[in-house]
């Protein structure tokens, strides 16, 4: 598991980007949706934008570059230009700290 | 309607074909494209693809699910005429396709440098152009880019990354001043010199030097600049000549349409880079040669064609991005020369900022360098100038 920080490090409606190290090594974005923490791969599956920079509305994030929207719970894109889902990752809040358990493979997200 | 032809098999054409099916059109959809290939994405041609970071497969715009669209592709032959009365499209091969509706999505082509064609002189619009240019850049040598617009700047940046010696020559004393205004144009063009690319501005190129192969470019005042490869980035021309005599209103600026992509001819609509369309955000007619427009406008055009309410006619600000020298530039809105510009986040020197353009106090456009998140925030606060004027 990777330590994200304290819950207050991710304000509601906002996101932080963390380097995942190990495994895939891809950065992960952790979102706070009304107090619930959700984590997905940070890199948009369309090109290379950071989804932590995207606009969050309800449970979706809009990519800051070409506006593909992803469901933060499932990782599914709602339409073009993104074609493939982003991986989702489990978030664990324990002892007042937020952690991410990095998903094994891309298949795990599908 | 039983058959619709989409003319132009690229971003706007594919988006139109998808929109037809999304709206439940179950007749024949024929896509006519003069390139041999299925639709591919152009923005990476001057960026990741030219740099060699991604390959041809990565450019594909079609997905596996597009097979369900049941499209009838006619690739490799251009449409040569539109016979509105005879309800048909005539291909250059002489073949005639009978249709009940037409979506024009023929895009634009690079404006060539006037005069004889010399080896080593390139424009960049298609995948083949990008492959040919990349081969020459890898051979090394000196590159001269004519035009410091977005495409020229992106090519200069990518070539620099490939280790090429680059000079950019721009006729305008204030490169990008027309689009972004002098202050922000200067902030962007400073990226060239920051990255070891020479920029000569305020100096038009008057001719090319060389007999078979280019050896240099001649500048106003008589001086010349040696070059092994030249890239001409001086704008794009809409592909509309084939519509001559069709009765569809158009001129050198593109096919005229309303906000919903409708032309003057019922059952003929248009979208993407080939159009000169009323922009409800700006309150004027514009040609928007940008990716986001080419993906959004087709939905409206298809709604117009099918006689459905046009959702996309509500004001949404024009948008484009550009990537140069590792910097991400984003612009949304509509700027006029008199608009007041101010830095609203960050500062110019840091190369990370958001700038706002105001007209009578209202925010009508925003530009950001390396600030995608804040750009997203400010972009949502834009006020359509066309509406601001009424208030
Ligand atoms: C190198 C490059 C980089 C770019 N970078 C950016 C960027 O960073 N950001 C951004 O916002 N935009 C960018 N753009 C612009 C963006 O790619 C275009 O706005 C978009 O491709 C327009 O799509 P379109 O389908 O309208 O036209 P096009 O992509 O031009 O496609 C039109 C198609 O129609 C075909 N055609 C033409 N005439 C005929 C005919 N008579 N019959 C049949 N077919 C015909 C053409 O060959 C072409 O395949 C870039 C463009 C280029 C070339
Ligand atoms: S990079 Fe995210 S939509 Fe294109």
Summarize the structure.
The complex is a heterodimer of chains A (110) and B (391). Chain A is mainly β and 110 residues long.
Helix-strand layout with pairing:
The complex is a heterodimer of chains A (110) and B (391).
Chain A: E1 2-5, E2 15-18, E3 28-33, E4 36-41, E5 55-57, E6 60-62, E7 69-71, E8 88-94, E9 97-101
Antiparallel strand pairs in A: 1-9, 2-3, 3-4, 4-8, 5-6, 6-7, 8-9
Chain B: E1 3-7, H1 11-22, E2 28-33, H2 48-51, H3 56-59, E3 71-75, E4 79-83, E5 88-91, E6 96-98, E7 101-104, E8 108-110, E9 121-122, H4 127-138, E10 142-146, H5 150-161, E11 165-170, H6 177-180, H7 182-194, E12 198-201, E13 205-209, E14 216-219, E15 224-226, E16 229-232, E17 236-238, E18 250-251, E19 254-257, E20 268-270, E21 275-279, E22 284-286, H8 291-305, E23 319-324, E24 327-333, E25 340-347, E26 352-359, E27 362-369, H9 372-379, H10 385-390
Parallel strand pairs in B: 1-2, 1-7, 2-3, 7-20, 9-16, 10-11, 10-16, 11-12, 19-21
Antiparallel strand pairs in B: 4-5, 5-6, 8-17, 13-14, 14-15, 18-19, 21-22, 23-24, 24-27, 25-26, 26-27
Helix pairs in contact in B: 1-8
The structure holds flavin-adenine dinucleotide and FE2/S2 (inorganic) cluster.
FE2/S2 (inorganic) cluster binds at residues 44, 46-47, 49, 63, 65-66, 68, 81-82 of chain A.
What would you say this structure looks like, in words?
Chain A: Keywords: 2Fe-2S, Dioxygenase, Iron, Iron-sulfur, Metal-binding, Oxidoreductase. Chain A: It comes from Pseudonocardia cypriaca. Chain A: Residues 2-100 form the Rieske domain. Chain A: InterPro entries: Rieske_2Fe-2S, Rieske_2Fe-2S_sf. Chain A: Pfam families: Rieske (PF00355). By secondary structure, chain A is an all-beta fold. Chain A has one domain (2-109): Rieske Iron-sulfur Protein (3-layer Sandwich), CATH 2.102.10.10. In chain A, 0% of the residues lie in helices and 37% in strands. Chain A has no helices and nine strands. In chain A, the strands form two sheets. A six-stranded antiparallel beta sheet of chain A has the order 1-9-8-4-3-2, with no helix packed on it. A three-stranded antiparallel beta sheet of chain A has the order 5-6-7, with no helix packed on it. Chain B has helices at residues 11-22, 48-51, 56-59, 127-138, 150-161, 177-180, 182-194, 291-305, 372-379, 385-390; strands at 3-7, 28-33, 71-75, 79-83, 88-91, 96-98, 101-104, 108-110, 121-122, 142-146, 165-170, 198-201, 205-209, 216-219, 224-226, 229-232, 236-238, 250-251, 254-257, 268-270, 275-279, 284-286, 319-324, 327-333, 340-347, 352-359, 362-369. Chain B is an alpha/beta fold. In chain B, helix 1 packs parallel to helix 8 (291-305). Helix content of chain B is 23%, strand content 32%. Chain B folds into three domains: 3-109 and 236-306, 3-Layer(bba) Sandwich (FAD/NAD(P)-binding domain); 112-232, FAD/NAD(P)-binding domain (3-Layer(bba) Sandwich); 326-387, Enolase-like, domain 1. In chain B, strands 3-2-1-7-20 form a five-stranded parallel beta sheet, covered by helices on one side. Classes of the chains: A mainly beta (110), B alpha/beta (391). Chain A binds chain B through residues 47, 49-50, 52-55, 62, 64-67, 80-81, 83, and chain B through 15, 18, 44, 48, 63, 291-292, 295, 321, 328, 372-373, 375-377, 380. Bound molecules: flavin-adenine dinucleotide (FAD) and FE2/S2 (inorganic) cluster.
């Amino acid at each position: 598991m990777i330590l994200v920080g304290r819950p207050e490090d991710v304000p509601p409606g906002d996101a932080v980007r963390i380097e995942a190290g190990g495994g895939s090594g891809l950065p992960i974005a952790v979102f706070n949706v009304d107090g619930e923490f959700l984590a997905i791969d940070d890199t948009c599956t369309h090109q290379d934008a950071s989804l932590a920079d995207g606009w969050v509305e309800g449970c979706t994030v809009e990519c800051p570059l070409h506006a593909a929207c992803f469901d933060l719970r499932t990782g599914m894109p709602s339409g073009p230009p993104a074609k493939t889902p982003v991986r989702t990752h489990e978030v664990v809040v324990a002892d007042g700290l937020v952690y991410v358990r990095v998903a094994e493979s891309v298949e795990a997200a599908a | 309607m039983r058959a619709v032809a989409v003319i132009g098999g690229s971003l706007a054409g594919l988006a139109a074909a998808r929109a037809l099916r999304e709206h439940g059109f179950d007749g024949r959809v024929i896509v006519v494209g003069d390139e041999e290939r299925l639709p591919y994405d152009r923005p990476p041609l001057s960026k990741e693809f030219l740099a060699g970071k991604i390959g041809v497969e990565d450019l594909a715009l079609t997905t596996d699910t597009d097979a369900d669209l049941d499209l009838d592709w006619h690739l490799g032959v251009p449409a040569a005429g539109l016979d509105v009365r005879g309800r048909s499209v005539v291909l250059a091969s002489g073949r005639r396709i009978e249709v009940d509706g037409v979506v024009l999505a023929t895009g634009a082509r690079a404006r060539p440098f006037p005069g004889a064609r010399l080896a080593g002189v390139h424009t960049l619009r298609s995948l083949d152009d990008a492959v040919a240019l990349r081969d020459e850049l890898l051979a090394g040598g000196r590159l001269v880019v004519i035009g410091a617009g977005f495409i020229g700047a992106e090519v200069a940046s990518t070539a620099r990354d490939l280790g090429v010696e680059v000079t950019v020559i721009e006729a305008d004393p204030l490169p990008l001043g027309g689009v972004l205004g002098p202050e922000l144009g200067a902030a962007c063009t400073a990226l060239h010199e920051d990255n070891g690319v020479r920029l000569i501005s305020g100096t038009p190129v008057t001719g090319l030097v060389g007999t078979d192969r280019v050896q240099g470019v001649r500048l106003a005042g008589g001086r010349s600049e040696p070059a092994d490869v030249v890239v001409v980035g001086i704008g794009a021309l809409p592909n509309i000549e084939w519509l001559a005599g069709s009765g569809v209103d158009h001129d050198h600026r593109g096919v005229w349409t309303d906000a919903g992509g409708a032309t003057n001819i019922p059952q003929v609509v248009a979208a993407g880079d080939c159009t000169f369309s009323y922009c409800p955000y700006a309150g004027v007619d514009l040609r928007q040669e940008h990716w986001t427009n080419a993906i959004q406008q087709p939905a409206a055009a298809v709604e117009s064609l099918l006689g459905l309410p046009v959702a996309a006619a509500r004001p949404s600000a024009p948008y484009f991005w550009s990537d140069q020298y590792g910097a991400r530039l984003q612009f949304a809105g509509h700027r006029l020369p008199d608009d007041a510009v101010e830095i609203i986040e960050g500062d110019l020197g840091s190369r990370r900022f958001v700038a706002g353009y105001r007209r009578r106090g209202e925010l009508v456009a925003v530009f950001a360098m390396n600030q995608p998140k804040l750009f997203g925030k400010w972009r949502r606060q834009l006020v359509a100038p066309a509406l601001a004027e009424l208030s």
